[in-house]
Amino acid sequence: MDLLTWLRQEAQLKKMVLVIVFIALFLDHMLVSVVVPIIPSYLYRMDQATTTPSVNSTDSTVTYVFIQSVSNLSGTWGSIFAPSHSNREFFNNASRTNKNPDSNCSGAGTQLDELNTKVGLLLASKSTIQLIFNPFTGTLTDRIGYHVPMCAGFCINILATTLFAFSSSYILLLFARSVQGVGGSFLSVAGMSMLADVYKDDKERGRAMAVSFTGLALGLIAGAPFGSVMYQYVGKMAPFLVLAVIAVLGGGLHFLIFQPSSVQTVVKQTFGL
């Protein structure tokens, strides 16, 4: 209890607010970049698992390669083995009737284009949702303060990271990314409001914002390599569960520093509960 009293003193409270906002921006933007090396590979593996190759197409391709190899071999050593006219006619007819392997490349290109479209929509969904929610979040923050939106932002990001960890379909991944956009809107808008309210002096506010945006940059830098290494050696769930733990720590710290009773009072006054 003495520790909480000390942390809630004005000098320490400023530092703790800066730490909370730093964690919020770091978490949100690390989740932005951690999916970049994971999603394309994961979606490709899902598509490969659900697509069963045709046996006839495979056999046709193998037969074509075999016939071409034998045909080249017979052409190279023709003077020695001197294949008969009937054999040459058989290989020529077979090579004409078999499917051209270039069509397989065309099919793979189409599949790759579809995958790129899915990845693009998934990555853009977070920013799109956040762009839509930011004005409403700003209005809500002006009305009820920044404590409730900040707690909501951490809780929503916990939900988003958990959905990312356990999602096994593209729709669920897209939903998780969209949920992350809502959480990112609450964290960024409420975080900037906290800094502006606590740091009254212009110079202090400028330094505090510089430190907080360092968390943003670190999240973007660390997310991609962290996600790549964790996905390769541990699996898809691991990086998102780690980020969920960070969200729990940030949200718990915010809830611990600021009295829960004040949050409850704001909710009662706003919604008349």
SSE map:
Elements lengths: L1 H6 L2 H25 L4 H12 L4 H22 L1 H4 L3 H13 L4 H43 L2 H20 L3 H29 L3 H32 L3 H21 L2 H12 L2
Helix pairs in contact: 2-8, 2-9, 2-10, 2-11, 4-6, 7-9, 8-9, 8-11
How would you describe the overall organization of this protein?
The chain has helices at 2-7, 10-34, 39-50, 55-76, 78-81, 85-97, 102-144, 147-166, 170-198, 202-233, 237-257, 260-271. It is mostly helical. Helix 2 runs antiparallel to helix 11 (237-257) and helix 8 runs antiparallel to helix 11. Helices cover 88% and strands 0% of the residues.
Structural class: mainly alpha
How many beta-strand elements? 0
- The percent range for helix content is over 70%
Outline type: elongated
